[in-house]
Known about the structure:
The chain is mostly beta strands.
Amino acid sequence: ATTTFANLTVSSGVVNFNTTTSIVDLDLGGTGTIQGSGNVSVSNTFDFSAGTLSGVGTFATMSTATTTLTGTNPMILSGKTWNNFGTVNWTGTSGGLFTFAGTTPIFNNLTGATFDHQGTSGSQDFSGTGTFNNNLNATFTHSSSTTGHAINSGVVFKNDGQVNVTAGGLDISSGASDTGDYAVSSGAILSFTGGTRTLNGV
C-alpha cells in the first residue's frame, strides 16, 4: 500500500512512515522529525529549513522535485539514505549546517541531478560523519560568493560526476578516490585540505 499526501508540513514532533509514502510538496522545519522504515518520495517541492530525516527507509527527491535548503539551524540526515534525482539549492544568508548523524547516513546525488550551494553564510558547512556521493552524470556546484564553505573531514565526499566551483571557495577536508571531473572558474578556490584524494579521471 502507498500513502499519498498532496501537501505535508512537519514543524515539530515525529512522523513515522512505515509504509511507502508519496508526497507532492513537503515542508520540514522547526524541531520536526520524519522517520520510519518505509520509503518516502517527494515529487514537486521540498523545503528543508531545520529538523531531522532519519530511519532505515530511503528518502527520495524525484527528478521533478526542487529542494530548497534554507536552515538557520542544523538540517540533519541521521542514519538515512537520501537519493536525489532532482534539483537541490542551498540558499540563505544565515548559517545552518547540513549535518550527517547516526549510523551511515548517505546523500546520493544521482545521474541527472544537481546540487547547487548558493548560500552566502560562511557557516553553511557539511558537518558530522557520513557520505556524499556525487554520482556519474550528476553535478555539484558551488556558486556562492562566500569563500569559507567546507565539507568537513568526517564527511566523505566522492565525486564520480562533475564538480563546478564557479565562485567563492570550497574546502574539501576528506579523502576519496574519484573518477569525476572538477572545474574551477577564474577567481574561485577549491581546496583539498585533508585525507588522500585520488583523481582517476574517466
